[in-house]
Amino acid sequence: MTEHRETGHGPAEHGPPPAGHADGWAVLEQAAGLTRRGEAFALATVVWRQGPSSGQQGSRAIITPSGELHGWIGGACAEPVVVREAREVISTGEARLLLLGTPDQFGAAVPDGMTVVPISCQSEGALEVYIEPVLPVPHLVVVGRSPMAETLASLGRDLGWRTDLVAGPGLAEAGASERSMVVVATQGHGDEDAVQAALAVRPAYLGLVGSRRRGAAVLGYLADRGLPADQLGRVRVPAGLDLGHTSHREIAVAILAELVQLRAAGAFTAAGPGGISAAAAAEATDPVCGMTVAAGPSSYPLEHDGTTYYFCRAACRQEFARDPAAYLKEARC
To answer: 150, 188, 226, 261 — which has fewest CB within 10 A?
Structure first.
């Protein structure tokens, strides 16, 4: 990374982080908690600053797929940029290094591989922010105690997946959730109860080990119990890729292959059940400084001639309110 010297020690407009913002170490504790719960997020760290800026070297923040920010990374101009880039990092799974500053501040001194985002607010100084994705490892829950179930659980662990092997239908001990992949391999010993319990969790994947005939009988019984057809339709039966006539342990390989194939195709990372949704939030351009901001109540909205405009800070809103025509004329040029 290019070495920088910190310059310009004027007061930052936004000042230090307000009370209630977690400091860097507290953010890491929050990150550990999210990881234990299997939740995806991005971790943003300020690795360099040039004053004046409210962000400090070592400042950290967590950004969730929905765009919530916990911690402190910078003021009103830097924060929405970091949130937007962090959500993209979560979606792609690829880390990136941002250089935030005025457009003419860096010239040709920008290292390869760095993303430059112009910030027009003079009070923000400049920041280098490293954003890394923290994506949960897959959670596989295998229900059953057969050799096939044990083989599948062992294969899942070999892949580094968080894997739980449970004997009965109760999934509470495994911590199953809508992000989990559940395979019911009870093989005739309480299949119906196990599938019903798994459906209540609404996992990202639910497969039943058994023949099509056996699967039809199980699903028919559950339909008679009153389970909705749309839920029953989510059950994959027989679970796994069709590899022809195979042994019980080879069935475990076929199921794991299907899970790997679906995961590689993005079936568990889209905005579907159990997936990571990073859909873009509504954005707008500050007509005064040109910054991209969230089009919401936190961005100092101001209505003018039937159109709502959004701003990165109160000063930009006030500047626009003094002479809207000047900025709207500039935008049309």
So the answer is: 226
Domain regions of the chain by residue span: 24-134, 139-264, 283-332
For residue 330, report the phi and psi dihedrals to the nearest 5 degrees.
-65, -40
11-66 pLDDT, tens per residue? 333 444 443 345 667 888 888 888 877 788 999 999 888 775 566 778 899 999 88
Assign 3-class secondary structure to the chain.
CCCCCCCCCCCCCCCCCCCCCCCHHHHHHHHHHHHHCCCCEEEEEEEEEECCCCCCCCCEEEECCCCCEEECCCCCCHHHHHHHHHHHHHHHCCCEEEEEECCCCCCCCCCCCEEEEECCCHHHCEEEEEEEEECCCCEEEEECCCHHHHHHHHHHHHCCCEEEEECCCCCHHHCCCCCCEEEECCCCCCHHHHHHHHHHHCCCEEEECCCHHHHHHHHHHHHHCCCCHHHHCCEECCCCCCCCCCCHHHHHHHHHHHHHHHHHCCCCCCCCCCCCCCCCCCEEECCCCCCEEECCHHHCCEEECCEEECCCCHHHHHHHHHCHHHHHHHHHC
Pick the CATH number of 139-264 from 2.40.30.20, 3.30.559.10, 3.30.70.1230, 3.40.50.720: 3.40.50.720
Closest CA to 82 of 90, 21, 52: 90
Tens-digit pLDDT profile for residues 118-137: 776 655 578 889 999 998 88
